[in-house]
Amino acid sequence: MGPLWLTVRLAALTTGILLVIGTPIAWWLATTRSRAKPVIEAITALPLVLPPTVLGFYLLVLLSPNSAIGGAFLSVTGSTLTFSFFGLIIASSLYSVPFMVQPLQAAFEGVGRGPMEAASSLRASPLDAFFTVATPMAVRGYLTAIVLTFAHTIGEFGVVLMVGGNIPGRTKVVSIQIYEYVETINYDAAHTLAGILLVFSFTVLLAVYTFNRRFPLHVG
Amino acid sequence: MTELSVDVRVSYPDFALEVAQGFAGAGITALFGPSGCGKSTLLRVIAGFERRAKGQVAFGAEVWQGGRAFVAPYRRGVGFVFQDARLFPHLTAQGNLDYAHRRAAREPARYSFDDVVDVLDLAPLFTRRTGQLSGGERQRVAIGRTLLARPRLLLMDEPLAALDTKRKAEILPYIARLPQAFGLPIIYVTHALAEVTQICDRIVALDGGRVVATGGVAETLERLDLAGVQGRFEAGAVLTGHVAGQDPQLHLSRVDLGGTVLEVPEIGLSIGDQVRLRVRARDVSLALTRLDGLSIRNQLAARVLTITPEHDTAYAEVLLDLGPQHLRARITRAAVQALGLLEGQEVTALIKSVAFDRQALPRPDRAAAE
Question: Which of A116, A149, B249, B256 is most buried (most C-beta within 10 Å)?
Answer without folding.
Answer: A149
